[in-house]
Amino acid sequence: MDALECISGRMSMRKFAPHEMSQEEIHAILKAGMEAPSAMNRRPYELIVNTDNAFWVEMKKEKPTCEIIATSSLSIVVVGDENKNPTHEFLIEDCSVVAENMLLAAKALGYDSLWAGVKFDSEFYLSLIDRFNLPNGFMPIAVLCFGKAGSNKTQVDRYEEKKVHWGKF
Ligand SMILES: Cc1cc2nc3c(=O)[nH]c(=O)nc-3n(C[C@H](O)[C@H](O)[C@H](O)COP(=O)(O)O)c2cc1C
Fold first, then answer.
1. What is the whole-number distance in angstroms between the Cα of residue 84 and the centre of ligand 1?
2. Domain parsing of the chain, residue ranges
3. What's the pTM?
4. By alpha-carbon position, which residue is closest to atom 8 of ligand 1?
5. Given the CA of residue 63, which atom of ligand 1 is nearest to it?
6. Distance from the CA of 117 to the center of ligand 1, in angstroms?
7. What is the tens place of the pLDDT at every residue in 103-131?
8. Pick from 22, 24, 55, 77: most CB atoms within 10 A?
């Protein structure tokens, strides 16, 4: 699958089939995340990797999507590091490109994925800090989960000519 096919083939999967991912596959996904660009190459992120995802069910009160994450083969919490980026300048962007790279790498390896958003200071945000004992200055930005598709989804072409402004708005 080439890069453009991975990009257009990536879709949020909300049902996963049981499957064990290999260490090589997990490593390839993590490596793809770390190959993302970042402002001034600060790389202000840490990645928490989980292959036993049953514990996510405990957080479904804070975020219903956690029930889906619990059925995935792999979840990765993308954590922003304020120490590397005290003004927060580009912190979210830097972490987001890491996340997107990992979703696309997973697609290339034959896996589907879901990005579960973490709203700043939400109950979910606070419960992630608590669950993973994140020290001051480490902010959960996104929870990604990966696995084999458990349902069929069809690709949608989202290209919209009206959103493209050639030279003037
Ligand atoms: C920042 C962000 C937060 C998201 N949060 C959630 C979420 O909490 N639960 C969920 O089911 N999907 C979540 N999604 C997935 C979006 O709903 C999904 O990307 C969008 O509907 C487009 O569908 P697609 O991913 O299949 O192209 C999130 C996506 C992004 C980028």
1. 27
2. 3-152
3. 0.97
4. 116
5. 8
6. 7
7. 999 999 999 999 999 999 999 999 999 99
8. 77
Residue 65 is encoded by which pair of tokens?
């999507």
Domain 3-152 belongs to what topology? NADH Oxidase (3.40.109)
Q: Which of 43-52, 75-84, 128-137, 151-160 has the lowest mean pLDDT?
A: 151-160
pLDDT in tens, 62-97: 999 999 999 999 999 999 999 987 777 899 999 999
The DSSP result for 63-123, as a single string, is -TTHHHHTTSSEEEEEEEEGGG-TT-TTHHHHHHHHHHHHHHHHHHTT-EEEEEE--TTSH
Of 114, 123, 124, the residue with max ligand 1 atoms within 8 A of its CB, to mutate for a pocket test, comes to 114
